[in-house]
Specification:
The complex is a heterodimer of chains A (about 375) and B (about 375). With about 375 residues, chain A is mainly alpha-helical. Chain A has 2 domains: about 70-225, Actin-binding Protein, T-fimbrin, domain 1 (Orthogonal Bundle), CATH 1.10.418.10; about 240-360, Actin-binding Protein, T-fimbrin, domain 1 (Orthogonal Bundle), CATH 1.10.418. Chain A is built from 15 helices and 3 strands. Chain A has helices at about 25-30, 30-50, 85-100, 115, 120-130, 145-160, 170-175, 180-195, 240-250, 250-270, 280, 285-295, 315-330, 340-345, 345-360, and strands spanning about 75-80, 205-215, 215-225. In chain A, helix 5 runs parallel beside helix 6. The longest helix of chain A is centred in the N-terminal third of the chain and has 22 residues, at about 30-50. Chain B has 3 domains: about 1-70, Ankyrin repeat-containing domain (Serine Threonine Protein Phosphatase 5, Tetratricopeptide repeat); about 95-185, Phosphorylase Kinase, domain 1 (2-Layer Sandwich); about 190-365, Transferase(Phosphotransferase) domain 1 (Transferase(Phosphotransferase), domain 1). Chain B starts with 18 loop residues before the first helix and ends with a helix. Chain B has 14 helices and 8 strands. The chains are: A mainly alpha (about 375), B alpha+beta (about 375). Chain B: One of its GO terms (biological process) is substrate adhesion-dependent cell spreading.
Chain lengths: ~375, ~375
């Protein structure tokens, strides 16, 4: 079977069981036993919380040097309302999920981007995982100076990998001072560079308050910081092929290609009373892709092998991965796309896969 | 005598002798009578043409004869069929498993390619002077794990103890080639005989005989309680022997790593088999549904849903209630039997043990 991506464990939902919700059966047992069961449950819940919760206490005391400014020094922070913006929340969520999925094998769980990433420890692991390199830095550093040094090494490596001028958007100082904006810029650049199998919300704007001390007075202004842009491809980066050219140079021809692919898939899918009108969205859950393989190759796919009505991202990824598996089994070259790209509705990846089928089966009736 | 745990009473060893031969020869009267009471045939001839009755002394022959007549046995001599090259290997189960577990791929002389199916390419050939059929399994990437699973699973297909089961003789496990070997069957599959005109005229009597043969084979298979490798009953997976005995072909069972998620002949499969894993349903009753379709096929000489692709058929059977329709040519008895065997509720379908007596009655 296709290997689903490793997924980090999610924290359990809040324990909401109150006394009133206790079922009839709980009451029937003897009082003593009931009490003991409750004790066990409490200890379990506490243990679970202790494991899942971050190691450091949540609200550290902020020393004065954290908020006292030098003359002409600038300090920026995100406006409080921004955290209520759904797009911004989604961005944070997607990034945290991505990091946790990548680092699931290391048993690292990130809960808060600014609190968990500033010391460079997680960033180091992330870089080692993504770039496949091993960094020569001490594993754990306690002192602040050590943390800074480590962060500097890690960031230097990042900038080298990314190789772009964007690096001005983050620095050792800004990240170590838990500046969320800088951390976000860095993570988005990473996700884009390594083509993380996630779909970032596009054009996220964050209002940032910049405070400057001039002449003993605090002045502030609000600027809109753009974290993400609109992306036309979230698919896997691979050798340039006809589709890249098509997208870049002949958008009019793209329509023709799309149209003939729609005709091709409908000729098959119509046999089982299905119809496709839009390639981007109707193939993303893998159901049509799986059915199409059966129609083209003359077999039936037992319904326990895939989710006929997938409910969440993981089920969709499973479906697409399964369809890919079928393609490989019947001797089609491994698709130049990741299952996640298809589920994320990346048009270019979807077209690549369908075109692959088209060129092999265009003569099948 | 405890051997009667589903052992085939009429099984002959390399001399052509059945248990009854020995019982008669050594004068174990009670045992012999017991055997005949349980269906041992008195008319099977051994290599020298002697039936158990010839071996029996004095009154025993007469007594056995009477019991046999009472039980309605056909007393015509059944001539010995030389299967010694298979028979030899069946004497001791454990010894055989180790003995022919791995057949060296170099010992096979493969001649012509007979068929090419999604499960692999099939060749005709010779192995130790015997005519064989060798199927080279289509495996995309033969990992050591697959090779190990193959080693574990194929011995379960070496079922020599029933006349209506065609066993896998042995296998070559030499990655990347996995080869499944069984005896060459002159007439090919039941599908060929029925639909591709091989010169055999299948009249009602012969069709019933095929049905009975398959039912007996399946009944035996179900008594073994094995699910892996998975055997899908359909006319392509039943072979016809030289003497027109139908035999359930174990070489067509699917290994756990084979054709995952692909069903090429859904027309014979029950709706629940298309929707649920074998572990989540009653596989015996799913086989019974397949048998009903096979009966329909034998009665009509048609391929079920021949005009539609596998995907269409599968979807419609599983979700839209597509079923075979009864044709006027099918006798009323058979129609009734088919309907019983493909009851929509798997729990209400009969077992093969229940179907066999019905078919025997229809045959008369």
């Amino acid at each position: 079977m296709a290997s689903p991506r490793s997924v980090s464990p999610r924290p359990p939902g809040p324990i909401s069981k109150t006394d009133k919700e206790e079922s009839f059966w709980d009451k029937i047992g003897t009082l003593g036993r009931k009490k003991r069961i409750k004790e066990v449950q409490e200890v379990q819940a506490e243990g679970k919380y202790a494991i899942d919760s971050p190691g450091s206490p949540v609200a550290p005391v902020i020393p004065p040097e954290e908020y006292e400014l030098e003359e002409n020094e600038e300090r920026s922070m995100i406006q409080r309302q921004a955290f209520e913006d759904s797009k911004f929340q989604e961005l944070l969520h997607v990034l945290i999920e991505w990091i946790n999925d990548e680092l699931a094998s290391q048993r690292i769980i990130v809960q808060d981007l600014s609190e968990d990433l500033y010391d460079g420890q997680v960033l180091q692991k992330l870089l080692e995982k993504l770039a496949g390199a091993k960094l020569d830095v001490p594993e754990v550093t306690q002192s602040e100076e050590g943390q800074r040094q480590k962060l500097a090494v890690v960031l230097a490596h990042f900038n080298q990998v990314l190789g772009r001028s964007e690096s001005s958007k983050w620095s050792v100082e800004s990240i170590h001072s838990k500046n969320l904006i800088a951390i976000l810029h860095l993570l988005v650049a990473l996700a884009r560079h390594f083509r993380a199998p996630v779909r970032l919300p596009e054009n996220v704007l964050v209002p940032v308050v910049v405070v400057q001390k001039s002449g003993g007075q605090l002045n502030h202004r609000i600027i809109q910081e753009k974290i993400t842009y609109s992306y036309d491809d979230v698919g896997m980066r691979c050798e340039r092929d006809a589709f890249d050219t098509l997208f870049d140079h002949a958008p009019d021809k793209l329509q023709v290609v799309k149209k003939s692919l729609v005709t091709f898939v409908n000729k098959q899918l119509n046999k089982i009373n299905l119809e496709v009108t839009e390639l981007e969205t109707q193939f993303h859950d893998g159901v049509y892709l799986t059915l199409l393989m059966g129609l083209l190759e003359g077999f039936f796919v037992p319904l326990y092998c895939f989710h006929l009505t997938p409910k969440d991202f993981d089920q969709k990824v499973h479906n697409v991965a399964f369809a890919f598996e079928l393609m490989e089994e019947v001797g089609i070259a491994k698709p130049k796309a990741r299952p996640e790209d298809i589920v994320n509705q990346d048009l270019k990846s979807t077209l690549r896969v369908l075109y692959n089928l088209f060129s092999r089966y265009k003569n099948v009736m | 005598m405890l051997l009667r745990q589903k052992a085939d009473l009429n099984f002959a060893n390399e001399h052509g002798n059945t248990p009854l031969h020995y019982a008669c020869f050594w004068g174990y009267n009670e045992i012999a009578e017991d055997l005949v009471h349980h269906g041992a045939l008195v008319s099977i001839a051994n290599k020298d043409g002697d039936t158990p009755l010839d071996k029996a002394k004095g009154n025993l022959a007469k007594a056995l004869h009477d019991i046999a007549v009472e039980a309605g046995q056909d007393l015509k001599k059944i001539t010995f069929k030389d299967q010694s090259w298979i028979g030899l290997k069946t004497r001791s189960r454990d010894a055989t498993l180790s003995r022919h577990k791995g057949i060296n791929i170099k010992d096979l002389q493969l001649r012509e390619k007979v068929a090419s199916t999604p499960s692999g390419d099939t060749y005709r050939g010779i192995w130790q002077k015997n005519e064989i059929i060798a199927k080279i399994l289509a495996v995309r990437n033969c990992t050591s794990r697959i090779s190990r699973d193959f080693n574990e699973e194929f011995p379960k297909l070496r079922i020599f103890s029933h006349p209506n089961i065609l066993p896998v003789i042995g296998c070559c496990n030499s990655p990347p080639n996995l080869v499944v070997i069984n005896q060459y069957m002159h007439w090919g599959s039941l599908y060929t005989v029925l639909h591709e005109g091989s010169g055999v005229v299948v009249d009602t009597a012969l069709a019933l005989r095929f049905a009975l043969d398959v039912a007996r084979g399946m009944s035996f298979l179900h008594s073994l309680e094995r699910t892996i490798p998975e055997y899908h009953l359909n006319s392509r997976h039943v072979m016809i022997d030289e003497d027109l005995t139908a035999r359930v072909n174990m070489a067509d069972a699917k290994f756990s790593f084979q054709e995952k998620g692909r069903i090429y002949y859904p027309a014979w499969m029950s709706p629940e088999a298309l929707q649920k894993k074998i572990s989540d349903r009653n596989w015996e009753s799913s086989d019974m549904w397949s048998f009903a379709i096979l009966l329909w096929e034998l009665a009509t000489r048609e391929v079920p849903f021949a005009d539609q692709s596998a995907m269409e058929v599968g979807m419609k059977i599983a979700l839209e209630g597509l079923r075979v329709t009864m044709k006027p040519g099918i006798s009323a008895h058979l129609q009734k039997l088919i309907r019983i065997c493909m009851n929509e509720d798997p729990g209400k379908r009969p077992t093969f043990d229940m179907v066999i007596p019905i078919l025997e009655k229809m045959k008369r």
